[in-house]
Amino acid sequence: MNACLASPILQTRPMLIGGKWVEAASGEVLSVENPARRQVIAHVPRGSAPDVDIAVEHASAAFSTWSKVVPRDRGLQLLRIADALESRLEEIARTIALETGNALRTQARPEAKLAADIFRYFGGLAGELKGMTVPLGEHVLSYTRREPLGVVGAIIPWNAPLLLAALKIAPAICAGNTMVLKTAEDAPLAVLLLAETCQAHLPDGVLNVLTGTGPECGAPLLHHPLVAKLSFTGSTAVGKLVMQAASERVLPVSLELGGKSPCVVFPDAHEDWVADGIIAAMRFTRQSQSCTAGSRAFLHEKIYDSLLDKLVQKASKLRIGDPLDEETDVGTIINEKQFRRVCGYIEDGLSQPNNKLLAGGLPPTEGPLSEGYYMRPTVFANASNEWRLAREEIFGPVMVAIPWTDEADVIRMANDSHYGLAAYIWTHDVGKALRTAHEIQSGWVQVNQGSGQSPGQPYGGYKQSGLGREFSLESMLDSFTQIKAVTVNLTR
Ligand code: NAI
Ligand code: MG
To answer: Per-residue pLDDT tens for 113-142?
Structure first.
């Protein structure tokens, strides 16, 4: 491993409340670790209920003026933030790589670019915050207004921290809300850089960014009486807690939760590009720590062996190593807890009768890769849709390959999951592809590609994968505004 990529100096980064950079009221801190070295690289405040109180009060005070700013002017600030993010893209991308273990070239840099793009996209949409007139008769004028909700409480995870923060901040702030956002314990640093960039263009208190744990800092935010909307990305288990908290005050809630997404491959799709596409869909270059990972590969039995062979050869060539090294394709798992969890799934797969491990397996215990939470792309053949590996979100680079023969049966298996986030279909037959796309119970189906999300596309889950949509105009209008109807009698 390259010596010049050694960990940087230990730093302490404060959090943002009411336009000021502050420590936690308790004075306590949390450590942030570089998972490629298992070394502490920074400390951040360990925020808790008193910090949440102050942040929400600032956000609430800022709402009365921010909500009255002309939407196009709010949008203009977002456009400026997009430019400012681009001007420090490299610093932000390296910070993401350092704290998450995501490889700079394949993941962290594209994530930083996409986050800037999200600000630009929503900034340009500010003029779309319009209402309509309702034809109730010549004697009345009835029209609607899109009004912001108030203080949004947002909680994000660590897997794509900057992008997920941008997807909450940009549409919410553009629509005239203010926000208190809690970062993930494992990845607060890049989001604090984003907060710094936003703060340079926003009035004090419009955006407040807290660091802290879920139970100590996230829970008081969910339950704070002045919070008017909850927006959460993370596990389905915590998503259910968010919904419970919302029910206490009948708050609107947006949830972006997990997935166990199927790749359905028809017998005519057996070329190299299909194998490349499945690898992309599986998000191996993000260590598959992605809610849209196509982790269940349903391959038609006619091509099962030959396509798996191609897939395994290609996946085994991905370069695993230091996330900051430009040559690296695959970085590390986020932390020790997730690392052990993923190892547990691999052990479970190895204990299944007739399992066939084609690639990867348990991580190396010696050599340079044992210095961090590195894992190799892992593929189990002879898998069944009943395995725990095929039913639970692993959030690690473990794919199961399941053979099929009957079209109705593969659709049944694809839908046999409490998740429904993404799906991938591979065939040259457009009729078959679209028929299958329409049958699959997922919020997003891709045909013949395994790409990531783009601004403009309504993205979100069916079933327990979530509620609401992100990435699109609808996400701003539906998730961050409420409609008021005004009806005026014209005869008086
Ligand atoms: P998590 O859902 O516990 O954490 C996500 C966020 O929720 C973090 O900011 C955390 O501090 C916060 N949180 C945790 N408990 C909370 C509580 N009681 N009240 C308020 N906020 C709380 O996810 P975790 O533990 O990091 O990962 C566990 C599993 O969750 C992963 O293996 C994966 O399966 C899934 N996950 C899914 C994600 C997605 O994008 N769909 C993202 C991250 C995790
Ligand atoms: Mg970390």
So the answer is: 999 999 999 999 999 999 999 999 999 999
Residue 201 CA to residue 185 CA, distance in Å, equals: 26
Q: What pLDDT score does 343 carry?
A: 98
Question: What is the CA angle 319-455-252, rounded to 5?
Answer: 115
In degrees rounded to 5, what are phi and psi of residue 400? -110, 140
Q: What does the pLDDT look like over 162-192, one tens digit per residue?
A: 999 999 999 999 999 999 999 999 999 999 9
Q: Is 9 exposed, middle or buried (0-12, 13-18, 19+ CB in 10 A)?
A: exposed
Report which bound ligand comes closest to the CA of 95: 2
Residue nearest to atom 27 of ligand 1 (CA): 235
Q: CA separation (Å) from 440 to 144, 185, 301, 366? A: 36, 35, 20, 43
- Domain ranges across the chain: 11-257, 262-447
Residue 148 near residue 480 (C-beta atoms within 8 A): yes
How far, in Å, from the CA of 483 to the mean position of ligand 1? Answer: 31
Closest CA to ligand 1's atom 19 = 219
**216 φ, ψ (degrees, to nearest 5):** -85, -35
Which CATH class for the 262-447 domain? alpha beta
CATH number of 11-257: 3.40.605.10
pLDDT single digits (tens) 62-91? 999 999 999 999 999 999 999 999 999 999
Give the per-residue pLDDT at 34. 97
Q: ∠ CA(191), CA(193), CA(198), 5° rounding?
A: 90
Note the pLDDT tens digit of each residue in 442-471: 999 999 999 999 999 999 999 999 999 999
Which residues lie with the beta carbon below 6 Å from any ligand 1 atom? 155-159, 182, 184-185, 213-215, 218-219, 222, 233-235, 238, 241, 257-258, 291, 338, 393, 395
